[in-house]
Write a structure and sequence with these properties.
By secondary structure, this protein is mainly alpha-helical. It folds into 2 domains: 2-87 and 241-252, Arc Repressor Mutant, subunit A (Orthogonal Bundle), CATH 1.10.10.10; 91-236, Up-down Bundle (Four Helix Bundle (Hemerythrin (Met), subunit A)). 71% of the residues lie in helices and 3% in strands. Helix 2 (9-34) crosses helix 4. The chain is elongated and about 60 Å long. Residues 1-17 and 241-255 have low confidence and may be disordered.
């Protein structure tokens, strides 16, 4: 009986690990954005980072994997991890504390789910579906023209595509995590408004590509267009910062 009561604690500990890794991810991200870990420079060693944050190496490595996936950190064999680029500080102004790792995870989920929904929408849509998507696209055009954030219109465009798939489970999946999705969309569009390049126009070009593929009943093109759009949105969270030349790590590794 004693063995039975001791077992539940192990899954609970494992459940807590990703949350702790997310916290470390955001602490390192903040240090990169503020310049504490400068672009092009080597990060402190794993031992130093573990000591700084009071964590184990497995937790640290989870955080570093996410930073690498976000193209903020790169590893050089035998040399350690280096800061690849520094995102714009406005990320910290717009994103709630503790939300950035979750926002990136939301994009990963959406890329998988909504790409398939777009492909099915290309095959199954009717005229009413097209009219709804076109209306959302027109609303987004107006947002770009007037410099509005347009989070609600963006959400409507993606929901309209999911609805056109003819499978309500795609809509249900998005509805179940609507708060996280809208937060991610709004953050991305706010960052676009803050960018001198006015990235909203580029985002709209991606929406048009999705709409055209669905209109043409080209399922593979719709799948690719939607997946590319959402993956680009994930990357845009960290656009606008300080890039580093491709050969920087090799030079720094010689120090």
């Amino acid at each position: 009986m004693m063995e039975q009561t001791s077992q539940p604690s192990e899954p609970a500990a494992r459940t807590g690990e990703p949350k702790l890794a997310d916290q470390v991810y955001e602490k390192i991200l903040t240090s990169i954005i503020t310049g504490d870990f400068p672009a092009g420079e080597k990060l402190p060693t794993e031992m130093e980072l573990c000591s700084r944050y009071g964590i184990s190496r497995p937790i640290l490595r989870q955080a570093l994997r996410q930073l690498k996936a976000d193209e903020l950190v790169v590893s050089r064999q035998g040399s350690g991890s280096f800061v690849k680029r520094r995102p714009d500080g406005v990320v910290l102004n717009f994103a709630p504390v503790g939300s950035i790792a979750d926002i990136q995870r939301t994009f990963e989920f959406r890329a998988a789910i909504e790409a398939e929904a777009a492909a099915l929408a290309a095959e199954r849509h009717d005229q009413k579906d097209l009219e709804r998507i076109r209306a959302a696209l027109a609303a987004l055009d107006e947002c770009v023209r007037t410099g509005q954030v347009g989070g609600a219109a963006d959400e409507e465009f993606h929901m309209a595509v999911c609805s056109a798939s003819g499978n309500h489970y795609f809509e249900n999946a998005r509805t179940s995590m609507k708060a996280q999705i809208v937060l991610a969309m709004t953050l991305n569009r706010q960052l676009s408004l803050a960018s001198p390049e006015q990235r909203l126009a580029k985002v709209q070009t991606e929406h048009v590509r999705i709409f055209k593929a669905i209109t043409d009943r080209n399922a593979p093109a719709a799948y690719s267009a939607m997946r590319d759009h959402i993956e680009s949105a994930r990357r845009r969270i960290f656009d606008g910062g300080v890039p580093v030349a491709k050969d920087w790590a090799g030079a720094n590794s010689q120090r």
